[in-house]
Design a protein that fits this description.
The complex is a heterodimer of chains A (353) and B (333). With 353 residues, chain A is mainly α. Chain A is built from 15 helices and 2 strands. Chain A has a domain of 220 residues. In chain B, 47% of the residues lie in helices and 18% in strands. A 6-stranded parallel beta sheet of chain B has the order 2-1-3-4-5-11, with helices on both faces. Chain B has a 6-stranded mixed beta sheet with strand order 7-6-8-9-10-12, sandwiched between helices.
Chain lengths: 353, 333
Amino acid sequence: MEKSSSKYGIKDLGKRLLLSEYFVLYLTVIYILILTPFIPRIFHPWNLKNLMSNTWPLLAVALGQTFVLIIAGIDLSQTSVMALSSVVGAMIMTSGVDAVLFEKSPMWGIMLSENGGLLAGSPLAVPVAIIAMLAVGLLIGLWNGISVAHFRMPPFIVTLVSMMLFSAVAIFLPKSENIRNLPDSYIGISKTTFGFFSVSMVISLGLAVTAHILLSRTLYGRRLYATGVNMKASRISGVPTKRVIITAYMISSVCAVVAAILYSSRLEMGRPTLGSTLLLDIVGANIIGGISLAGGKGKISWTFFGVFFFIILANTLNLLNLSFYLIDIVKGLVIMVAALLDVTRNRIQRTQL
Amino acid sequence: MKRVLVLIALAALLLPTVLVAGGQKDSDQITIAFCFQDLETEFWVAGHKAITETLRAKGIKVIEKNANEDANRQLEQVKDALTQGVDGVIIIPQDGESAVTIAKACNEAGVPIGVFNRPPSDRSAKNIVVVANNEVIAEAAVEHMAQEAMKLGRKVTPAIMVGDLGDPNAVGRRQGFFNVIAKYPELWASAPVEIPTKWDANVALANLQSAMQANPDIDFLFTSSDFLFPVIKSVLAPLGKWQKVGHPNHVILGGLDGDKTACSLLKDGYLDATGVQNLFAEAEMMLDAMLSAIERGDKMPNQWLDDPGFALTQANLAKREMEMWGCKLLANE
């Protein structure tokens, strides 16, 4: 009798853990504790600094993806937004480029010259470049949103096409060259720290708090979830679903731009291929966090936990010095397990209703 | 009691961390992180093998990281390696620009860094750079091709398959080609056709096909890397232009790297010349410079080591074949 009650106790605990919104956080803590004896340097100050600096840009871009996943969409174009906005921003603020490399760029003589970008050396260069980057993001988000909401095109196809199209534009503009010599004040965005705190941390956490308030405390947030759960019912109930969808894609793109700012200032250059390999990390972090691909479910805290777990996973796989052949296999398997857990959680929740 | 046990277990788990965070090094063995951008071509595979095997043979622990052509990932990998207290870092960077950013991170951490075969785009960071003199090597190979063209007694239509110009190696190779073009202005029927490849076989294939359609007279072709020869063959063969030296439809062909494919093509008579990077010597130069910096405690060594290279041609093939790394690998198969 006692044995069976303890069995049920463990089962209940397992269920409660699985359904808890802190499930991924618990998992991360357990994972760290298990690995700590094998990776003693995990809490080394340098490593903590690395973990933080790797977390903030990925968090920024993953937050945007969360909005789109909640409405049962997906945004594959975020990486192209990152690439294109980083190139456009760099073309405005760079203080000098090599003519041999750039003279074939269609922007040569218009935005670029041997003396640098459009506003090279001007105190307005950085703010104008950032505004231009945000404008690029908003326009691509608008394009995606209108295609999905008004033309009823599948989000997967729309954003896949956007990814191809805008990645190609990002490569075409500088003829695939990286644009260096960015102003110190721009590079400082990812390099300035105040002890444990950094500017990128403030930016990403600020974005996360804003997103959290938007999702949990506003009418727009409620409409977003409603659209994700059942678009038809929402529309009949008076939710302006088209506007909600368009805004979600625009937010997604703006978040990608914020990530582009953090990544490009960290790499000290505008890169036409910036973020091209990040898609797995962005979507993977959201899925691991518990954001449902079916839509209607997700919280900013989950995205944060997912991103943090993903970063810890990548970091520990590096520190374990696993063969490079194995690292992506492990990452892929972890995302697979996370998706499986998501299905299990949904099933348990349905049976409890 | 339970809480005490949990606390003891946690303390035991965290003990190694506390020791390391307190500054203790994991072991006295020299550890070098070797971070490469990818292993797409024969050249990089052979370079990777040469470096890792030589290091391990010297009793050095090697931590390997593959960035899969992502500069940001490579930066993160290098930073992760630095936290492990490595004694040195050797990178094959994605491009010259990211090499600078990564080298600066190593300079900041006080760990010597070596940049192998793909030089930084500027000299603002301190690093050991081992690089082939691409301009000189390319010029030597194209010079031989030009001499062959002169024997035809007519003008030829030149073309170059250009690498990713964000890579200083590609810039040097292009410059070497154009030095020869400028040297013999009477030899060319038209200005050279530039075919972008971005160091990508698919891009190269599409652009070479288009170039051959637009300029069917191309009969003098230099590829900035030997790994593109299979692509060239697949485009020229259907046009009847994949012919041996001496055939009326032979396209005078040159490359650069010195890989196994180039060696086979030279021996079979399809290739006129290839510029050779002395890969094994480059690996040796890098390791010697890195180990010497570690030994003398130099945390920011700043050396630029040139591999002069040479051109292996139909004329000197018999004599210098075994100086080319691709031929050595071929002979060992």
